[in-house]
Amino acid sequence: MQGVFITIEGVEGSGKSTQLLRLSERLRRLGHPLTVSKEPGGTFLGRELRRLLLERHASGETWCPDAELLLFYADRAQHLEKVIRPALAEGKIVLVDRFEDSTRAYQGASGVAESALDRLSDLVLKGLRPQLTVLLDMDPEVSLQRVEVRNLSLGAEFAETRFDEAELDFHRRVRNRFLVIAKNHPNRVALIPARDPVAQVEATIWARVAPLLRSAGFGVD
Ligand code: TYD
Q1: pTM of the shown model
Q2: How far is the CA of 102 from the centre of ligand 1 (A)?
Q3: HSE of 217, CA atoms in CB hemisphere, 13 A
Q4: Which of ligand 1's atoms lies nearest the C-alpha of 40?
Q5: What are residue 190's DSSP bridge partners?
Q6: What is the pLDDT of residues 31-81, one digit of tens each?
Q7: Which residue from 133, 130, 126 is spatially nearest to 81, judged by alpha carbons?
Q8: Which domains does the chain have, with CATH numbers?
Q9: Ligand 1 centroid to 201 CA: how many Å?
């Protein structure tokens, strides 16, 4: 039996983690073999790369866009080889928090050329694509406010995490790129309005996930 590969995408603060948790809990309750992972950081190497990637602003040295791009793809190559492909080969449902669409949206918004993304994608993915991508769509103006509130509630250490106009503009471009991806891949990408109440978003996601699982031979009731 071949597994099922599902990714979840969206701008920061769109509720990805909450929905991923709810979906994975539901799948566990149904008793399905499940691998839940994320990018960057789904392997040991990936966690080292993640640290480097997310600390890029703290170091005082910014990573040049090509270096950053290669780090994300290094993370992805290792993740595919060590986690995603083996789990799919074992017939598992594989649920991944962020995947290639994030690179196309974020690094694309940072100015990386489409042709570079295509070449790296060919090299690393070798044709593997998620069967379903859940895209949680939300205006960054709202989603980033959520992130700010969350960071503030984490205490003084994070209290300075404020998004300025340039960052907001960047996240708007990220969102637009996600929307273009959804438009170009309507069969793969489920575009979900993420401002609805959590339970409603969860139900909308399940309405897209359940038929896919059923067709792959997994029970959904
Ligand atoms: P993370 O803390 O996982 O954020 P979130 O909870 O929003 O997923 O950080 C991941 C960050 O890395 C996020 O800002 C998106 C970014 N990213 C890229 O820029 N390119 C990529 O290919 C991936 C996978 C993530």
Answers
A1: 0.94
A2: 7
A3: 7
A4: 24
A5: 134
A6: 999 999 999 999 999 999 999 988 766 777 888 889 999 999 999 999 999
A7: 126
A8: 4-215 (3.40.50.300)
A9: 21
